[in-house]
Every structure is written in C-alpha cells, then in structure tokens.
Specification:
alpha+beta, 8 helices
Length: 317
C-alpha cells in the first residue's frame, strides 16, 4: 500500500523512487495498560483510546461548508495534479503546496490578497516567471471569478527553482500537517494528528464526528457557522462534554443544539465508528487535499461529510 501510494503520487526521482524506496514495518501490540481501559467487554463498554479535546467546524463560505482559504488552496493543487497526471503539464513534478490569503468584508470572503504556490518542476531551466505562466490558468480556474485583482500578490516558487522535491528534498513526518488536514487555521484544533491512527483513537474518529455534526447543523439551517467541541478521557466511553458555538449566527439556542446532538448520535468511540461505518479501509485517500470538505464515496469514504442528520437534529430540537 505504501509503495502504491508513492507510485500514484508520481515520485520517480533517484533519491525517492516508488520501486526502490525502503519500507520498514515496526508495528507492535498496544500497551496492555492502555488496552485495559480501551478494550470493551461484557461488563464494560469500550473506552476512548486517549484523553483530549476534538473540534469540528462548518460554515457557509463554500458549497462544501468549508472555510474559503483552505478550500481554494486545495482546489488549486487538485487541478494542477489532474493536469500533471493527464500529461497536459509534463513539466510539473509531484511535490507542491499552496496558500491563499482571502480578504473578508463583513465576514464574507470577497477577493484574494495573496497567492502562494510552490510546485516542483522537472526542467531545471524554468524560472519562477516560467512556472507562474504555466500555473496561472489553473489558479484562475480554481478561484471564483473576480477574486483575483490587479492588487493580488503572486508568490510562485519564490525561492527561484524547485527541482528536487518530496522526502528527497525536505523530509517531514506524515500526520504533522494538522491544519492543512482540517480547516486551514480558520477553526480550533485539538492538536492531535489524524494520519496513522485507526478510528479507535478519538483524535481521529471524534474529530470526524465533530465535523459531521457541525456540518449537519449548518446544512440544516440552524446556524451559518458552527464549532463543536468534544472532550474525552482515556478508558471512558462517553464524551465528558459537548460544546456548541454558533458564533452569533444560530437560529436556535446553543444549549438546545448541544442537547439535541447528544440524542441523535452515540458519541462513544464505538458509537462513532458504527454510525459513520469507519471500520473499513477508507483512509488512504485522506493523504492529500485534506480530510474535510470532500464528497462522500460510495464505499463509505468521507462518510463524515454526509448531511443526512439534519432531519434528526430538527426533530430533537
């Protein structure tokens, strides 16, 4: 699976090639001390795999109910990847990252102040200006019409060139990009990474559940913005707290929404996994373009992006 992911991304450079990369599997059993509080049995429900606070967020800035900056930053990269994989842009390499600075007026996104895009290229003779000319049409396609103005600042490959990419050029750690994986800094984050964790860990499953609930609150018309906080203790099944903040945009009192959410979904680790059908191999696709704001897949991937709970919330209010 790891080698296939590297191949699908497109890493074929000498220092990092999907065929020759060395892969070690160092997995072992969980600590028995932790397992005694987490494993469920006849007289004790399955407890949370760790303590912590998890957040979910949704807003009306995009059709996917995501903050505009992270949504459009991901969209730029997706369009560039499609162009590269299709062969339309053979000069581009697989390593790239983007950042979009959006100007808001009265809380509504209106235009782009700055675009930052660093993308690997395979031709060493290409300059930053050459790469900007190549990527500009895709950037403009990704952003709403009129958002790019004469005042928009462009920073494309600002170091000059970007030929060596991926772990061969700058090695990071999978799972560390927690803000890119979530809301781009527009919302709170509990600090726990998602990648590499199975859904018994509330760092992952409860963060997904919080997004699911927040999205359904906004999709149901109960608020224009919604932050949901869940907190857990290791070995304890039910969350210690459910907190809802609608940022002054709610049509229903926040404490009423809190009470309703606790009725419509079992927020224990086992309840979350069952409700969102998370005990399946659906997580590899979260390796790029974030974990939220995606279309639910037929096989259960991104089930936490469904808006099928709005009716139940309405009935519970």
């Amino acid at each position: 699976m790891t080698r296939e992911a590297i191949r699908d991304i497109g890493y074929t450079q000498n220092g990092f090639h999907w065929q020759s990369v060395e892969i070690e599997n160092l997995m072992h059993e969980q600590s028995a001390d932790i397992a005694q509080g987490v494993d469920g049995h006849a007289t004790k429900p399955e407890g949370a795999g760790d303590q912590g606070i998890m957040f979910g967020y949704a807003c009306r800035e995009t059709p996917e109910l995501m903050p505009a900056p992270i949504h459009y930053a991901h969209r730029i990269l997706r369009l560039l990847a499609e162009a590269r994989h299709s062969g339309r842009e053979p000069a581009l390499g697989p390593d790239s990252k983007s950042q979009v600075t959006v100007a808001y007026e009265d809380g509504v996104p209106k235009k782009v102040d700055a675009i930052v895009l660093s993308t690997q290229h395979l031709d060493e003779t290409l300059t930053s200006d050459d790469i900007r000319a190549l990527v500009a049409p895709y950037v403009r396609e990704a952003l709403p019409e009129g958002w790019i103005t004469n005042e928009t600042a462009w920073h494309v490959n600002p170091t000059g060139k970007f030929v060596t990419g991926g772990p061969d050029g700058d090695a990071g750690l999978t799972g560390r990009k927690i803000i890119v994986d979530t809301y781009g800094g527009a919302a709170l984050h509990g600090g726990g990474a998602f990648s590499g964790k199975d859904p018994t860990k509330v760092d992952r499953s409860a963060a997904y559940a919080a997004r699911y609930l927040a999205k359904n609150v906004v999709a149901g018309g109960f608020a224009d913005r919604c932050t949901i906080q869940l907190s857990y203790a290791i070995g304890v099944a039910q969350p210690l707290s459910i907190y809802v903040n609608t940022h002054g945009t709610g049509s229903v009192a926040e404490e009423t929404v809190e009470a309703a959410l606790s009725k419509v979904m079992d927020l224990s680790p086992k309840g979350i996994r069952g409700h969102l059908q998370m005990n399946r191999p659906i997580y590899a696709r979260t390796a790029a373009y974030g974990h939220f704001g995606r279309e639910p897949d037929a096989d259960g991937g991104f089930s936490w992006e469904k808006t099928d709970l709005t009716g139940a919330i309405d009935a519970a209010l």
